[in-house]
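Sample pair:
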Amino acid sequence: MKDKLYYLYIMASPGGTLYVGMTSNLINRVTQHKNGEIEGFTKKHGCKKLVYYEISTDVSAVIAREKEIKNWRRAKKEELIKKFNLHWNDLSADLFKQLCLLCHSESQTVSKRTG
């Protein structure tokens, strides 16, 4: 059985406001942010661009990392993003493609085993 994945992520607004969050379903959560479906900070500030993410199978580590990054000064958050995503591109389209390909290949493996 495959381990469950957890994601720490950073969303940005066009004006540069940053939001740090965590989830077990990054595609769904980013889609919710982009569509303004989540009331609160990200909707109010228009944080719709995925600029950074980390993946782990350890939920406790992701929660701790989220708290750590939330306590950083903005400059340190910007440095982290720039190391991962120099031009602050929206990473969601490529991420969605990668995860969909991964899910598709896993479903092919399952159907081959059950078929």
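The first helix runs from residue 26 to 34.
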